[in-house]
Structure formats: C-alpha cells, structure tokens
Design a protein that fits this description.
561 residues; mainly alpha; Leucine-rich Repeat Variant; ARM-type_fold; PBS_lyase_HEAT; ARM-like; oxidoreductase activity; HEAT repeat domain-containing protein
Length: 561
C-alpha cells in the first residue's frame, strides 16, 4: 500500500485522507504501509499541492511512538522521504529512533538522518552510539555518517572496530585510522593493540603500524607467534620474516661485510651435499630457531606455509622434516615444496621428487597426493634442473589429472632452457609434440614449453593442417619469422576461417615487420597492405583489429607505408 502519483490536488487529498485513516488500523502492517505511503505522497505532492499535504509531517511524527517496530521503521522511512515537509520535529524524532530498541528501526533512522543531512551534537552522538551497535549494518552507517560530517571516533574505538569481522566495518575504521596516523593518540592506541590486543584487532594494528613504530616490538612479535588467533600469527610471521634485523642477516657470519660471499658459500655447501647437520652451525639465526619451534605445534595451514616460506628462504635445512610433514596438506603443501626447493639439499630434492610422483593411497591423509601439490613439485623439479628430472617428469605427462600434467609441462619448459643431454631433449620434445595434439586443456602450457625446444620446428610444421584450429594457431605462434617457408605459412593463413588462426598469422607478420622493418613479399595478386588495413577496421573483431593495427604502427615507425 502506498501513495500513487496522479489525480492532481483532488487525488492527493483522497490519498492523504485514506492513508491518515489507515494510521489507526489494528494491523501493524497496515499502519506501517500507511505511514510510508504518507511519506511518498508528501514527497511528490509538496511542490504543487503544498496546502493539501501540509499536515502530513505532523501525522507521521505523531506515529513515532507506535508500539510496533514495523511502524516505527516506516516513520523513519517517511521522514527521510518528506524532507523539510517533516517539520521542525522531524530531526529530534529521527535522532530518537536512531536509539530505538529494534535494530531495523535504528537502521532506517540512520539512513533517514543521511537523507535529511542532519547535523549537530545530538546527531553526532547518535552516530557514535551506533558505532558500537550489535548490527554490523549500523556500525557501517555510523562510520560513514561520521566521516561525512567531518567527525571521527575515539582512537580506542576505531582500533577495536578494525578488529571487526565484517569487511565493510573494519575497512571504514581502517580508513579513518590511516587518515590520523600522524597523531600521537592514534599511534599509541595502535601500539597498545599490537602489544596487548586480541584477535583481528591486534593483527590489523600490527599491519597498520609504520615500520619505525614496530622497531621496539620484537618481544611482542615473538609472543604473537603463539597467539590463539591464526591471523595474528600470520601477520607476525610476515613481519619477522621481512625484517632484515631478525632474519638470516642476524646470523654470526652474514652480519659481517662478507655477507654476500657467505651467502654464496652457504648455498653452495647446501646444494653440494655438505653434511646437513653442520649447516645450521654455519649460519645460526635466533628468529629461525623460534620459527622452527612454533612450526612444530602449528595447526593453521596458512601460518605453516608462511613459516616454511621464511625458513626455506633462509636456507635452514632444519626445516626439511617440518616441510615434509606439510607435503600432505593441499593448502600448505605447495609452500612446503617451495621451501624444500629453496633449501635445495639433496635430501630436500629427493622429497620434492617423491611428492611429484606420489599418488593417493588406499587410505590417504588430508591432501596426500593432492594434484596441486604434485603439480608444484613437478614444476619445481624443472626449475631446479634436478638430476633425473626428465625421467621423473615425462611419465607425468600421461597423468589423468590436468593440473599434474600442467605442472610437468612447466617443469619441462624450465628444463628446455638449460643444456640438457641430447637424448633427454629429443625425448622431451617428442613427448611435448604428442601432447600438443592430444591435451587441449594444457595447449598453452605445451606451447610455452615447446618454445624452448626449437629443434622440434620441422616436426611442428607437419601438423600445421591439424583439424583443430587451436592446434594450428599454436603452431603458427611457434614458427620462425626468419624462415621464408614459415613466413609463407603466416601469409597463407590470413584468410583462415578461424579467428585464432588469423590472429596468430598476424602476430607472425608483426614479428617479421619488427625484425625487418617492412612487409614480407606477398603472393602474386595479394595486396597485403590492403588486407592489413581491412583487418584494422570494423567489422573485424577487436583482437584482429588490434593485431593488424600493431603491424601498421610498426610499418609507420620504420618509415614504410
């Protein structure tokens, strides 16, 4: 039920009369609809029929004491709609409703205060009270309302709200704090929360503090590694790991002017298989000791992942057993693999290989043989150019899981950039070529890997006419712009029905122009410049227009038409 436009003064009169009678109806729903209807009628009729709706504001205000929350919420809506027509009593009524026992009424009233643009000490105080409301919508409204009036909350309350679980609440509170970070009371409250706070409030206070204010917090940070809140532990690990005073530079040797030489020597010793029990002695670290200790009891996957990343980055071989334990976890497992790779000892590399080839057993633990963990391990084996990596990765190209195949392909891509034995290169190139025509989901990964095996080009040219347009496009992307025959293939595929093929043909010509500064010789009767110009205009697709435009721009830059 509500006011309907039209009917002129007579229509407005009838609607106001009807809605006013409804205000005394027995059902709360009818009364609520009536009061909201009066707000709507008053809003549209005030300009032309002010005399008709002159008493609407008073009628709405008079309903503010209704016993039903649905009606009181309607009053707040109506007063927000009426604007000045609500009269002088509208403002105190809206402010009073902002303190209503029912949250839906408080919410409507806070919105009405915004629509009316209410200001003054009473309005500000009402918004301050709402900042501590149990309804998160009202906490947001309070922060937005105060900000719009050039007001802010006390630093202690803002810091508490930064720990709110609702993103909109803590986001607005954080914005208010950042705007006042140069004020001493704000910094003091953040420092207090960083030292003694709880949960998300402590975590976000630590994140917000400028680095110069965190310098005296090492003790609090170390205590935070055992905080009950995982978010606090995550933040603390990140801060300690990033602080150069607390990581490997605090070690006995690397603190000297020989730190670069020591780093290189330490890395070489790790990778050469030096007795792993000696390595921590060569490079002690107090923070690493603490990280290892808390990692033993850590149960949160993200915290464990951060601890492992830090320990791996420091090359601490003592982290290998912990990393191995987390290999079974689908979330922390990839970080465990990366940590083992960073440590790089022969033992660590063997565990990476084991993770790559492992598969779920009859009774798998959480994440055991998880595809993403195995895929990461496969990629890392290639990055490390680990001994025997080719023999490990090639069988994974036949794994039924796409992620694992992709990880193996990326590992072989890394191997292709290094001087592999001829036999390994040939076997890898042949396997990737076969994958090109059989594993469409990983086609782009396969393409990137094949780019590192240029010796496969003759065989690639033989699959240019494959039935799959995507395979043809991929082959074109790998062809050599310095080879006359390949350039002819670019030209002959400019009129291909497939947009992907045409796009790669244009990209090949773009590479040619970039290298030679002119267009390649076109077949007899073909106006290549005209073809490119047509491609650069509608109705060609955006992708084709862009590719053709690049060629034309390159020609203009080189001085050719």
């Amino acid at each position: 039920m509500g006011g309907v436009r039209g009917g002129g003064a007579v229509g407005a009169t009838h609607q106001v009369a009807f809605l006013s009678r409804e205000l005394s109806a027995g059902e709360p729903g009818r009364r609520a609809a009536a009061v909201k209807g009066l707000g709507r009628v008053g809003r549209w009729a005030a300009g032309e029929h002010g005399d008709v709706v002159a008493g609407v504001g008073a009628a709405v205000v008079g309903t503010a004491g209704d016993s039903d929350a649905l009606v009181r919420a309607g009053v707040a809506d109506a007063l927000g709609s009426l604007g000045p027509l609500g009269g002088d009593e509208a403002s105190p009524v809206v402010v009073a409703l902002m303190g209503d026992p029912d949250p839906s009424v408080r919410r409507r009233a806070s919105l009405a205060a915004e629509r009316l643009g209410l200001t003054g000490p009473d309005v500000t105080e009402a918004f301050r009270r709402l900042a501590e409301d149990t309804d998160w919508h009202l906490r947001v409204n309070a922060l937005v309302g105060l900000h719009g009036r050039g007001e802010t909350l006390e630093p202690a309350l803002l810091v508490r709200l930064v720990g709110d679980t609702e993103p909109l609440v803590w986001g607005h509170a954080q914005r208010a704090l950042y705007a006042s970070l140069n004020q001493k009371p704000v910094v003091e409250q953040l420092l207090n929360a960083a030292r003694y706070g709880h949960g998300l409030s402590r975590a976000r206070a630590l994140e917000m503090l400028p680095a110069r204010h965190r310098r005296g917090l090492r003790g609090s940070l170390l205590d935070g590694l055992r905080d009950q809140c995982p978010e606090v532990r995550r933040v603390v690990v990140g801060l300690l790991a990033d602080d150069q005073r607390h990581g490997p530079p605090d070690a006995l040797l690397s603190s000297s002017w020989l730190s670069g030489t020591v780093d290189a020597l330490f890395t070489a010793l790790r990778r050469s298989g030096t007795a792993e029990s000696l390595l921590p002695v060569l490079r002690p670290s107090g923070t690493a000791d603490t990280f290892l200790s808390v990692l033993e009891a850590e149960t949160d996957a993200e915290v464990a992942a951060r601890l492992l990343s830090a320990l791996g980055g420091w090359g601490d071989v003592r982290a290998v057993p912990a990393a191995v334990r987390w290999l079974d976890h689908p979330e922390a497992g990839p970080s465990a693999v990366r940590a083992l790779a960073a440590i790089g000892t022969p033992t660590a590399v063997r565990w990476i290989r084991s993770a790559a080839v492992s598969a779920p057993g009859p009774d798998p633990g959480p994440g055991l043989g998880h595809p993403y963990v195995r895929a990461t391990a496969a990629t890392v084996l290639g990055e490390l150019v680990a001994p025997g990596a080719t023999e490990t990765l090639l069988p994974l190209l036949r794994d039924p899981d796409q992620q694992i195949r992709a990880g193996a392909i990326k590992g072989l891509e890394h191997l292709g950039r290094h001087g592999l034995p001829r036999r390994d290169r040939d076997a890898t190139a042949e396997a990737l070529l076969g994958l090109l025509t059989t594993d469409e989901p990983n086609l782009w990964h396969t393409r990137n890997a094949l780019a590192g095996y240029p010796e496969i080009l003759p065989a690639l040219r033989r699959v240019i006419d494959h039935p799959s347009d995507e395979v043809t496009a991929t082959v074109l992307s790998l062809l050599d712009e310095d080879d006359e025959g390949d350039v002819s293939l670019f030209l002959s595929h400019l009129d291909d029905p497939s947009e992907s093929v045409r796009h790669q043909a244009l990209s090949g010509i773009d590479r040619y122009v970039d290298g030679y500064g002119q267009l390649p010789a076109a077949p007899p009767g073909v106006d290549l410049l005209g073809v490119l110009t047509a491609f650069s205009q509608s109705p060609a697709s955006h992708r084709i227009r862009y590719a053709a435009g690049r060629v034309l721009d390159a020609l203009r830059t080189s001085g050719h038409p």
